[in-house]
Design brief:
- By secondary structure, this protein is α/β, with parallel strands linked by helices.
- It has a single domain, classed as Alpha-Beta Barrel (TIM Barrel).
- It has eleven helices and ten strands.
- The strands form two sheets. The protein has an eight-stranded mixed β-sheet, sandwiched between helices. The chain has a two-stranded parallel ribbon with strand order 3-4.
- Helix 9 links the parallel strand 8 and strand 9.
- The longest helix has 16 residues.
Length: 309
């Protein structure tokens, strides 16, 4: 492992400046015809995407391949995480046609694998779980061969929500821990590390055959031993797939970047995660939860089969 991550950087507050971006984190502006076609389709079906709302740096590359991560339950989140660019406030009513619109988009884009995520909806009795269920069912009807990955909120204090989504049988259940426990109050104040970890463990108890996945950001001020401890917690919860990517500050109002982690350090983190027993690991500066999710799902299934034999 590389030394620079061994000691925690002092976390930078939102009013502090992030360091200059290194060459390995820079991406080209999206200009392709396929990008525009994907954008037009999302507009026509009145769908939100985390690609746009969260200002993902990979949007040009992914949309050129017509891979979009749909964000259901509206575009306004009830939480105010300091790392996230999604709007915060009082959400509007759910769109009852959204599940069918998502299914239509999957069909028109010809997706073999789709990632469905959402904002947090603490205002809803079930946190939006039934909307996930209806979306999964609509995709199954419209595109039965498409594999489905859900990236859900924590459904904090929403009894029965996790059970409902698991019962709908997505192929992958993803919930991101995002950062190390020490930084939760600053970075993810509305969430609880223990609750998010318990969610992932509960999914496996409910359906041991379901793939589980979680993601971390680095560059927020965490130390190497803290990242490794989170990996150990995830393996104790029997999580199959880990993603690790560089945190990028969306706007000057958001939590600043403590430092940019070098590609060689990501390679070290990836090797360490595989050594701890994850079936699949994606770790690079631009890795995000849904980045090449379809290709990674194929590798994930192959890894399970190989381990079984």
């Amino acid at each position: 492992m590389s030394a620079p991550l061994r000691h925690p950087e002092k976390a930078r507050k939102p009013d502090q400046l992030s360091p200059p971006k290194p060459s390995w984190i820079r991406v080209k502006a999206p200009v392709s015809r396929e990008y525009q076609e994907t954008r037009d389709l999302m507009r026509a079906l009145k769908l939100n995407t985390v690609c746009e709302e969260a200002a993902c740096p990979n949007i040009g590359e992914c949309w050129k391949q017509k891979h979009a991560t749909v964000m259901i339950l509206g575009a306004v989140c009830t939480r105010a995480c300091s790392f996230c660019n999604v709007a915060t406030g009082r959400p509007g009513a759910l769109d009852p046609h959204e599940p069918e619109h998502v299914a239509a988009a999957v069909g028109k884009l010809g997706l073999n694998h789709v990632v469905v995520t959402s904002v947090d909806r603490d205002d809803l009795p079930d946190g939006g779980a039934d909307h996930f269920v209806q979306t999964i069912r609509a995709i199954r009807r419209a595109a039965p061969a498409t594999t489905i990955e859900v990236l859900t909120p924590d459904f904090l204090k929403k009894d029965g929500a996790i059970e409902a989504v698991v019962a709908a049988k997505p192929d992958v259940y993803n919930h991101n821990l995002e950062t190390v426990p020490r930084l939760y109050r600053e970075v993810r104040p509305g969430a609880r590390y223990e609750a998010s970890l318990a969610l992932l463990a509960q999914v496996k108890r409910l359906d041991p055959t379901m793939f589980t996945k979680s993601g971390l950001m680095v560059g927020l001020g965490e130390a190497l031993d803290e990242v490794c401890a989170v990996m150990d917690d995830l393996r104790a919860a029997d999580v199959d797939f880990l993603t690790v990517g560089q945190y990028l500050q969306p706007t000057p109002k958001h939590h600043a970047v403590a430092r940019f982690v070098a590609p060689t350090e990501f390679a070290d983190l990836k090797a360490s995660a595989f050594a701890k027993g994850f079936l699949m690991v994606s770790a690079s500066p631009l890795t995000r939860s849904s980045y090449f999710a379809g290709d990674d799902f194929t590798k994930l299934r192959a890894a399970r089969l190989a381990r079984a034999h």
